[in-house]
Amino acid sequence: MKFRDLEKQYQAMKSDMDASIRAVIEKANFIHGEQVTELETRLAEYVGVKHCVSCANGTDALQLALMAWGIGKGDAVFVPDFTFFASGEVVCAVGAVPIFVDVRRDTFNLDCDALERMIEKVEKEGKLRSAAVLAVDLFGQPAQYDRIREVAGKHNMLVLEDGAQGFGGKIGEKKVCSLGDISTTSFFPAKPLGCYGDGGAVFTDNDEWADLIRSYCVHGKGKSKYDNVRIGMNSRLDTLQAAVLLRKFSQFVGWELGQVQTVAEWYDEQLKGVVEIPCILKGYYSSWAQYTVKFPTRESRDGAMHLLGENEIPSAVYYEKPMHRQKAFQEFQYNETDYLVSTELSQTVLSLPFHPYLSREEVTLVGKMIAEYAKEWL
Ligand SMILES: *Cc1c(COP(=O)(O)O)cnc(C)c1O
């Protein structure tokens, strides 16, 4: 069993995919080929925003958004404490300070009460300007943007949506990557919509920010690539990856997104009452980047992981270390008591094999193994 079976996915679309890749190679238009523009158009249309600007990866996408807003020295950006490192890393990369915020125990996403408390704390200290909230759609479920927008609006802050894991998810009919003032995603192979290497994209309705991002991602270009009006970076999605994504996108919206809901239901059936299964809020749809359950203790979680491993069933701990404990952020001196939930989660969560090509038998096998284990240990 694979944690995420990209080989099966390739087999399901092999001949089309080979043809798409060959078409790029035969034309040798590796950078800025027509597939890049076509992909941007299709993704913007799907998400329901005016602009999609593709770039080299999901980390750059976040950084480009912060650059477009001119966020830097003296600014505070509020980031969930329970996420992938990149969500906090980019804040430091532009010279701003990441203020980590505890998360909800049920959804793993930003806790809006904790967000308000942290904003008030920063404003009381008066050293930093509260500039933006960087919300993450963890494991595929969108964060609570109605509340986040309300809090951000009250404090005159922008909202950046990190949809690296959430592409394909939605709240009501509003899709992930349309929920922030700027939203981003990643096409890293293991993400819900992944390419065959690295890739990312930025989404926004704002013309001015979109223009700035198109400039920043090609060396701060002005009228042309050789007219450079600002310091930028080199962050492009190449044509091969765009061709791969165009082919995968059809499969993604046509079948995979529906199938992952089914696989999640199979898991729910097996594991309900055994461990804590994922909680998806009413009206919210996850793209199921991960299927993550909670055990009562670290010992039981580690034990289950060990047992699965012995039976050649891969599982993973996302994330072993909350952001405030990462050495890279130590200079900021966070207060442990602000992060009780994320600390607990880091000790009790386990992500199980999950992808649209998983069979019901495989899910049953994993479920039965955890249920048997639970009888003895939980
Ligand atoms: C993967 C990921 C990123 C970074 O994406 P890359 O394409 O790997 O740079 C950022 N944020 C979150 C939440 C992610 O899961």
Structural class: alpha/beta
Terminus-to-terminus distance: 25 Å
List the ions, cofactors and other small molecules found in this model.
Answer: pyridoxal-5'-phosphate
What order do the helices and strands follow? HHHEHEHEHEHEEEEEHHEEHHEH
Strand order of the largest sheet: 1-9-8-5-4-2-3
Write down the overall mean pLDDT.
97
The total of helices stands at 12
Total E-strand runs:
12
Rg over CA atoms, rounded to whole Å, is 21 Å
> What profile does the largest beta sheet have?
7 strands, mixed
Estimated share of beta-strand residues: 5-15%
* Low-confidence runs: none
Estimate the global geometry from the Cα principal axes.
globular
Q: What share of the residues lie within helices?
A: 40-55%
Task: Please give a structural write-up.
The protein has 378 residues and is α/β, with parallel strands linked by helices. Helix content is 42%, strand content 14%. The protein is built from twelve helices and twelve strands. The chain has helices spanning 6-11, 14-27, 34-47, 58-68, 86-93, 112-125, 145-154, 207-216, 239-271, 298-310, 340-348, 360-377; strands spanning 51-55, 75-80, 97-101, 129-136, 158-162, 170-171, 174-175, 182-186, 200-204, 284-285, 291-294, 349-352. The strands form three sheets. It has a seven-stranded mixed beta sheet, sandwiched between helices. Strand 2, helix 5 (86-93) and strand 3 (97-101) form a beta-alpha-beta unit. Helix 2 (14-27) runs antiparallel to helix 9, helix 4 (58-68) packs across helix 5 (86-93) and helix 10 packs across helix 12. The longest helix is centred in the C-terminal third of the chain and has 33 residues, at 239-271. The protein is globular, with a radius of gyration of 21 Å. The mean pLDDT is 97. It binds pyridoxal-5'-phosphate (PLP). Pyridoxal-5'-phosphate is lined by residues 57-59, 83-84, 86-87, 136, 162, 164-165, 186, 188, 198, 200.
